[in-house]
Amino acid sequence: MTAQRLTGKPVAEKIRAQSAQLVQALREQDFTAKISVVVATKNEATAWYVRSIEKAAGVQGVECQVLRIPDAGQEQLAETITALNNDETVHGIILQTPLPDGVDAAKLVELIDPAKDIDGANPLSLGRLSVGQPAFAPATARSVIEILEHYEIPLAGEHVAVVGRSAVVGKPLAQLLLQRNATVSICHSRTSNLAHFTTAASVTVMAAGRANLLTGDDVAESSVVIDVGTNVDGDGQLVGDVHAASVEPKVRALSPVPGGVGTVTTALLILHAVQAATEVHALTGRKGEPMALRR
User: Fold this and answer.
1) Residues 251 and 188 in one domain
2) Which pairing describes strands 238-239 and 231-232: parallel, antiparallel, or unpaired?
3) What is the CATH number for 83?
4) What is the widest separation between alpha-carbon atoms in the chain?
5) Do 167 and 253 lie in a common domain?
6) What is the helix (H) or strand (E) element at residue 32, kind and residue range?
7) 119 part of a folded domain
8) Is residue 232 one of the residues assigned to a domain?
9) Is the peptide bond before 249 cis (omega within 30 degrees of 0)?
10) Is 97 exposed, middle or buried (0-12, 13-18, 19+ CB in 10 A)?
C-alpha cells in the first residue's frame, strides 16, 4: 500500500485565493489590511519565519510591519502591544517567540486585543474557541483541520489521537476537532502506553516536538497521520515527529515534513489578518472602532 501524501501546497493555494478575493474587495474601497509582527530576538530561525510572513503578506497585497526591538524588556513590549491595539491601521498582531530571558510571555499575550489576535495567542481566544464563540484559532492548529478537510478525511464520529497539549496546537486543535464531532484523545509526554491510543485512532496528529516519536508499530492499518513536528536531526535536516519510513507503508495517508502543515500556516495568518480587516471595514467603514466593541 502506498500512502497518499497530504501535501500543504494545494491547501495553501486555496487559502491564498480566499485572501486575494477579500484583499481585492478592500482595495476597491481604498482599504488595506495590515499586520504588525513584534520581534524581540535575534534568533535566526525566528528571522527566517518572520521573513516568510513578510513575503507572503507582500504577495497578497497586505501591509506587514515588523517591529524589531531586540532584548526588549517586559515594560517596553507591553507598551508596544498596547500601542498596536490602539492603532486603527493595524488589524493583526503577532508577538513572535522566543522572547528575551525574564520576559513573561503569558502576561504579554493577554494584552493582545482578541479582534487582532490573528494567531490565537491570547487565552481569551482559546476560551472563546472552546465554547464555540468567534475567535481566531492558532494558525498551526487550524492548518491541520484545513488539510484534513481539503483531502476529505472523515472526522465526524471518528477517533482522533492528538499527541501534544500545547496552547498553540494540541489544545486548540482538540476544540476544533470536537466542533467537527470527532472523538478526541489528547496524549502527551506523560501518557502511559502512547501506542494504546494511537493504534486505536483512525487519525493521529503528532505535535509533541520529538523527532521520530511515532513509528510504524504505533499506528493502525489504513489510518491517517498528520505530522506537525519540526525538529532538526543530527545531519541538520528538518524532520517531523513521525518516523516516515516505517509509518508510510502502513497508513493510507501521511502529511510530509517539510511540505505539509507548515506550508499552510503562513497562508492562514494572512487570511486571518484580511478577515479581521474586512470585519472592521464592514462594521463601521473605519479602521479601529470595532476593536472596542468586541472586547
Assistant:
1) yes
2) antiparallel
3) 3.40.50.10860
4) 57
5) yes
6) none
7) no
8) yes
9) no
10) middle
pLDDT tens for each residue of 164-205? 999 999 999 999 999 999 999 999 989 999 999 999 999 999
pTM tops 0.70, yes or no: yes
Distances (CA, A) of 121 to 8, 54, 134, 166: 23, 19, 14, 11
C-alpha cell at 191: 501518557
Tens of pLDDT, residue by residue over 210-253, are: 999 999 999 999 999 999 998 888 887 888 999 999 999 999 99
Evaluate whether residue 267 is within a structural domain. Answer: no
What CATH number is associated with residue 195?
3.40.50.720
Number of residues in the chain: 295
| Cell numbers standing for residue 31 | 482599504
Residue 100 domain boundaries:
29-113
Exposure on the CB side of residue 25, measured as CA atoms within 13 A: 14
DSSP state, residue 194: H
CA distance 96 to 37: 7
Q: Can you read off the three cell numbers belonging to residue 152?
A: 476529505
